[in-house]
């Protein structure tokens, strides 16, 4: 079953509660946290995640595009995240492992994320304990970028690793997801699709979510 995770990066932040309710038929709510350091943009932080948690029961899929994420795992878990994804490029492997351990202690689901420059094999030290792997099909930092076709091979390789070592792990793809690209990433092995403008840019949002979900 294909799951859809609308990205609130494409929502109207002046009407954020309204726009969260507009995607209530989706499976997850994708929340991008950017620090202006790991990526060249700043989005939102802990207070906004707390506010989101107060206005929805949706599963909060929180993507930490931040340096040294270990510092903030507990804080975001307490703010209401259901899953935290951290970038393998954001810290030393020993501290990535420690961050995953803290997620366990906090009772949140665990994910790692890969930039386009990162090999699928980078997930191997962690795969058996993960709930999700996130493959970026754009460079992280800004919404509305064009889909990178060469990342389809990374998705296929990640799917092979998941099937071999942890079949229960989900495979999420983020970046340039639209009706034309969704079938490609699903065919490559993804089962969770993050979509920004492909959802929030449509007049009939529930129909847009349903259309993406049917791509599988």
Could you walk me through the main structural features you see in this protein, from its secondary elements to its overall organization?
With 216 residues, the protein is an alpha/beta fold. It has one domain (3-213): Aldolase class I (TIM Barrel, Alpha-Beta Barrel), CATH 3.20.20.70. Helices cover 33% and strands 20% of the residues. The chain is built from eight helices and eight strands. It has helices spanning 16-21, 46-55, 73-79, 93-106, 151-165, 182-188, 197-200, 205-213; strands at 3-6, 28-34, 59-65, 83-87, 109-114, 132-136, 170-174, 192-195. An eight-stranded parallel beta sheet has the order 1-8-7-6-5-4-3-2. β3, α3 and β4 (83-87) form a beta-alpha-beta unit. α2 (46-55) packs parallel to α3 and α3 runs parallel beside α4. The longest helix is centred in the C-terminal third of the chain and has 15 residues, at 151-165. The protein is globular and about 45 Å long. Pathway: Carbohydrate degradation. It is an enzyme of class 5 (isomerase). Substrate binds at residues 7, 63, 141-144, 174-176, 196-197. It catalyses: D-ribulose 5-phosphate = D-xylulose 5-phosphate. Keywords: Carbohydrate metabolism, Cobalt, Isomerase, Manganese, Metal-binding, Zinc.
